[in-house]
């Protein structure tokens, strides 16, 4: 009975962890989309071309 309880608790904990991780990734992706839209609007106001390459670039942060 104790082993069953521990197994279920571990399973529930792992499920919750992965659910939260997925939610964080979705929130981060939404933030990126919001920032891209804001940049597009600023470029529009400044009459500058919006470079779609910004969206796909994987530049590494500078130290």
Question: How would you sum up this structure in a few lines?
Answer:
This protein is an all-alpha fold and 63 residues long. Helices cover 78% and strands 0% of the residues. The chain is rod-shaped, with a radius of gyration of 21 Å.
Task: Write a structural description.
The protein is an all-alpha fold and 63 residues long. The protein has one domain (2-56). The protein is 78% helix and 0% strand. The chain has helices spanning 2-46, 53-56. The chain starts with a helix and ends in a 7-residue tail after the last helix.
Strand content: under 5%
Please mark out the parts with pLDDT under 50 across 5 or more consecutive residues, or reply none: none
User: What radius of gyration results from the CA coordinates?
Assistant: 21 Å
Compute the average pLDDT: 82
Give descriptors for this structure.
0% strand; mainly alpha; 2 helices
Write the layout of secondary structure elements.
Layout: H1 2-46, H2 53-56
């Amino acid at each position: 009975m104790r082993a069953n309880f521990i197994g279920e608790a571990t399973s529930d904990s792992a499920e919750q962890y992965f659910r939260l991780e997925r939610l964080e990734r979705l929130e981060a992706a939404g933030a990126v989309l919001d920032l891209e839209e804001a940049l597009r609007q600023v470029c529009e106001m400044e009459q500058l071309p919006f470079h779609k390459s910004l969206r796909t670039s994987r530049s590494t942060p500078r130290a």
